[in-house]
Amino acid sequence: MEQRTVLVVLFDGVQSLDVTGPMEVFTGASHCHGPDEVPYRVRTASLDGAPVRTSSGLTLVPDTSLAELTGSCGLTGPAGFAEGAAPHTLLVPGGAGTRAEDAELVAWLRAHAPRARRLVSVCTGAVLLARAGLLDGRRATTHWAYCDTLARDHPEIDVDPDPIYVRDGHVATSAGVTAGIDLALALVEEDLGRDTALTVARYLVVFLRRPGNQAQFSAQLSAQTAQREPLREVQQWITEHPGGDLSVDALAERARLSPRHFARAFQAETGTTPGKYVERVRVEHARRLLEDTSDGVEEVSRACGYGTPEAMRRAFVKALGTAPAEYRRRFHSPLTTHP
What is the set of active-site residues? Predict the structure, then answer.
């Protein structure tokens, strides 16, 4: 079995869960195999090998320094990684520390990160990759709060604010914090197969695996809360009655507004159209029914206001990149082994 080195870059102000979440996934995958077959060797490194303090105050002691890994005291020299030190996966976490202009770390990434076979960022780790020019011409994501900034500062990057993670060739970027676990599980599944990834997910008590193009937010969190009471009541009504008549005319009548006025006011106050809001609510409700009940796809589609299974299938493929039956199969796949 090929052993893949996973190198996690540390720096002051790093988000601790961006580091430990993916590390638990990769080391958990190794625990699924015998002592003679360890698929991942996980290492951590800071610039000088000194301990770093995370954004939550936790102190992390790295295994080594980036200088040692690159075979010299010059962090940005052309020599590259020392023999046998080039990682299979180089993971750059995020955190408040990415907002500091750490020219030395960015220079190291620019010089040496391209030598990794797989380049991964969690949360605002994408900001460091962007500064190093490693995301130029690629599609990428980051924590929702920093997507606009990343797109503004780096117009050469196709920033997608919606998915929890994005794959573009050998480069993978993820959204905030726990999305790094989802991405790590996807990488383990790619490397070692679904059974191993399912085992790790069960041990960590997480869902394997949220589709990468699943939205970072629920419909209620994605949209702003309307300021006016009638519109807030309509938002709540949509959430509580996804199978009802949620046409603009019906919702406008509930808000005691004309359809045209309602549509304008709803978008102005929530940041999305009534139709898009209803679509997100219905997909989320359908997901919960598929996860938590044994109702058939046809029954779920009626309960969520789709009318036909085909209409729900189209909505699922558009929103999640998978059909309802496949979504349920992934969620309820049996887990038979334990690390």
Answer: 123
